[in-house]
Structure formats: structure tokens, C-alpha cells
Amino acid sequence: MTISFARLCKAVSDRVLASIGLMLIAPVFLIVAILLKIRRESVFFRQKRIGQYGKPFEVYKFTTMFQGAEKKGTITTSSDPRVTLLGKFLRKYKINELPQLLNVLKGEMSVLGPRPLPQEEIDLYPPDVQAKIFTVKPGITGLATLRFIEEEALLDGVDDPEVYYVKFVLPRKGKLECYYVDHWSLLLDLRIFWKTLFKLFLCFLPIQTRSD
Fold first, then answer.
1. How far apart are CA 97 and CA 59, in angstroms?
2. For residue 133, which of 54, 190, 189 has the smallest C-alpha distance?
3. Other residues' Cβ atoms within 10 Å of the Cβ of residue 150
4. Which helix or strand (DSSP H or E) is residue 111 part of?
5. pLDDT digits (tens, 9 = 90+) for 95-137
6. Who has the most CB within 10 Å: 130, 141, 182, 198?
7. What is the pTM of this model?
């Protein structure tokens, strides 16, 4: 299979998975939207992220923080007071990420790929890392997402979450994102997809039965 044909298969599968996914989780969308409206909050949180070719776009998520919270920084811990009670539930089970299927349907994102970051975080990557990441569409999940799926809890256990994120977490993410770009294949995507589903399944298990 040639790379160009494999890329075409990925593009088609993205649209198919996004369409099916949105239909299947429509009841979840409706319930979350009603709960957010009851709390007089916006249903969607929109934030500018940097995508393929370095082009900015607005990523969609369910609102999980109090209005204006993003102005106080993008680093979030599991005990962050900016996160609402409903937001904690949505973030714990990654439900807040589901609206990004709309970004996939619009062609701005892929189901699998490097995570799209705000400009201020992208700027912390070396130029060569940025250039490599920008060659592909950002994804809802990927190697770095899997590795740091418990990122908020990890940052909650350090003295200075922002410093730790910049010095230790972000560089490791960059290496994983570059590895994905260099070694991309449909088989790698399939592995990441199923590992993501397994990790999400573990999120719903009682704490005492969960394992890595």
C-alpha cells in the first residue's frame, strides 16, 4: 500500500468515524447540553489551536470551567478551582473532548494524530519539532495523549505544575508526536485507536480494579 493511498484511507475513515460517532453519542450531547444550560453556561468552549501547516482553528470542547478561566493559563490540574463540579465529571471520563468530532467532520482534525496546542505552547517546541508536527492534521487522541491520559492528576502531585509541564511533560510529548509522524501507518493508527478505547474503558472501572 502506497503512502498516498494510506493517507486517503485515513481521510475517508476520519469522516466516517466522526459521522458514526456523532450519531451514536447524540443522546450524550443532548444531556450534557441541557445540564450546561441549566447551569447557565455555554455548551461549547472554543479555543484557538494550531493545526496542520501552522494554521489556527477553533477547537470544540464541552465547557468545564467557569467563564474567563482560560485567561489564567492553559495548564490544568485535577484540583484546579477553575473547573466546575460538572466539568470535573466531564474531564474525568473525557466526555468534554467529544465535540472535537465536529472538528474532524469539518476537516480541521483527524481522529488520530498529534494534539493541537495553543500558540503559546507550540512556541515552546523547537522549530524542527513544530515543522514536523505541522505536516499532519492534529488528532483527538494519539501517542502523547495515551502516555499522559492522567496528566491532570500527574501535575496535581508536583510543587509547580507549570514548570514541571514545560520542562518535563511537553518535551516528552514532542518526542512522541514526532515519533508518530515519522512512523505513521494505518496499523499504528489502529493500535492507538484500540488502546484509547481500552484506556477509556478503564476510566469507568472502580478505582480498586483499575490498572495500567
1. 10
2. 54
3. 13
4. strand 110-112
5. 999 999 999 999 999 999 999 999 999 999 999 999 999 999 9
6. 141
7. 0.90
